[in-house]
């Protein structure tokens, strides 16, 4: 499938999966701290140790290009005991540090954009526009319907083998009775399909999508002695095959229902709350930029990022119809001051830098790099240039 241009790639973590630091920062004891550690299972007391490595984790998310991060805190870290008093160390020890790192990355990202205000307006629209919200719901329903088709194909395999009348002349249904499970599952899958076709995700969110418990493979002595070993193993293999396919479509249904675990109203409220948080973070970034610029003026200095922004301001301006070249930029192009543009380490070029290069290239379309631009990942890897660099 093709993702829309305004799609936000992100990550989500749960406290017990990543947090760690189980006895630090004023955290109280949680139930996940008390369980005995089993072989092959991660120790929840340590988990991914996000408590101690949050900075590296946020840097990795920025490196991956993620634009959204949803995180959670262990409740016993926020409220360590039954006194009702919140933990004063949470704010200073962990939450503020993570928020500061995220804000710093947002600030750096915004400075890498040619027109950050345009981007902020687009993100704000994504959060608040009803048409975009409805389109998001429709896209999710389409994805869910595709997944459900896969679930039905898994179910058909399950039904075929679960409802076998006999194996080697011996009634399979009579002994195992999985046909009842098949009927129940089919009804649930058809109900989910009808709800998706109607777009009624509120009912999906409010419904309980638990599958019935599958009949266990008989282990009683009477059953075992009634069949010879070969037939009993055939029964058991068929049972295991059915159970494996049932687990596959159960997992798919679980993923579908997780997509709609909130009603439309709650989803809309969450979007609006996200917009309010985003707006505050952008204002903080604006304040950081204002203070930073004042300090640079006092010291009569600029950063490399400032030079990039100045170059963009000299060469490209934003209009209602999109970016256009300035008169200075057009004059540079007419005089062919840059007949050939070489860009090394192109994978590290940000959006702002790329627009500057495109504006100086011989392309009339600012969305496309000109034919006089030569880009490589590492210029030393190009044999002819490597020879000249020696």
Structure summarized in a few sentences:
The protein has 390 residues and is mainly alpha-helical. The protein has helices spanning 15-18, 31-34, 50-64, 75-78, 88-111, 116-128, 130-162, 172-176, 179-198, 201-206, 221-226, 229-259, 264-299, 304-315, 327-334, 351-360, 383-389, and strands at 10-12, 68-70, 166-167, 170-171, 316-319, 322-325, 341-343, 373-375. α7 runs antiparallel to α9.
Radius of gyration: 30 Å
Give the N-to-C terminal Cα separation: 47 Å
Mean pLDDT: 84
In what range is the share of β-strand residues?
A: 5-15%
Percent range for helical residues?
A: 55-70%
Uncertain segments are: 386-390
Order of helices and strands: EHHHEHHHHEEHHHHHHHEEHEHEH
Number of helices: 17
What's the shape?
Answer: extended
Largest sheet: 2 strands, parallel
Which strand order spans the largest sheet, edge to edge or round the barrel?
Answer: 1-2
Question: By helix and strand content, what is the structural category?
Answer: mainly alpha
Secondary structure tally: strands:
8
